[in-house]
Amino acid sequence: MESPLVLLVEDDDDLRTTTRLVLESRGFRVVTAADGEAGWTTYVTQPVDVAVVDVVLPKLDGLRLTERIRADGELPVLLLTARDLPRDQVVGFDAGADDYVVKPFDGDVLEARLRSLLRRRGGSGPARVVERDGLRIDVDGMTVERDGVPVDLSATEFRLLTAFLDNAGIVLGRTQLLELVWGSASWGDPHVVDVTVQRLRAKIGAAQVVTVRGAGYMMARA
User: Fold this and answer.
1) Around Cβ 88, how many Cβ atoms within 10 Å?
2) Coil, helix or strand at residue 139
């Protein structure tokens, strides 16, 4: 099987070269772009599997590039940023990013985040299909239909949905959800959980996930 192809969009020449070498040493193929417009051109002309996008880019910034990619399809997008502030994370997720890594980053962390996104995008073996309250969820195929109409979920939103499915009837706190969906309770601000839950509810129906005041969120058993 061919190695995953990563689109790396980074305007800093040294960081772009270093990151490419790190990813290639870990088994990825990499195509690079030095600005947002070049990144978009590469995205539409090459069969990339995942994108790593710097937030601050010339010509077309990383948030706008992410919005374009998200509007076009399902490609997972991981944002790189030099600022580790909750508001920056929320803005990135609002733009449609699936994950977020702060510079300077560890190569092992970047690899783990990318492989997590790719696993969620791929899936193998017999399809696990869940039907409940007008939703049809193909867990392995990462597709969702609501009343027969396809629902466009980001990779992070889909991870959140499967976390609720796997724990139906159980209240999940924000810290638990950070662990289950983002991989670490210390990684992001808990407000990111609230924002992502709100986005998911808007797409699958507000009644699917209920708020348990003072405790977290829960999906009722089907």
Assistant:
1) 18
2) coil
Element (H, E) at 120: helix 107-121
pLDDT digits 0-9 by tens, 81-94: 876 555 656 666 77
CB of 97 closer than 8 Å to CB of 78: yes
Q: Which DSSP symbol is given to 177?
A: H
Q: Identify the sign of the CA torsion 108, 109, 114, 118.
A: positive
Token pair of 134 as six digits: 């007008």
Per-residue pLDDT tens over the stretch 156-212 = 888 889 889 878 888 988 888 887 777 665 656 678 889 999 999 999 999 999 999
Distant-in-sequence, close-in-space partners of 6: CB < 8 Å, separation ≥ 6? 23, 28, 29, 30, 31, 48, 49, 50, 51, 52, 114
Per-residue CA distances from 31 to 10, 102, 103, 110 (Å): 11, 21, 20, 16
Q: pTM for this one?
A: 0.56
What b/e sequence results for 156-188 when a residue is b if at least 16 CB atoms lie within 10 Å of its CB, and e otherwise? Answer: bbbbbbbbbbebeeeebbbebbbbbbbeeeebb
Centre a 10 Å sphere on the Cβ of residue 221 and count the other Cβ atoms it contains.
Answer: 8
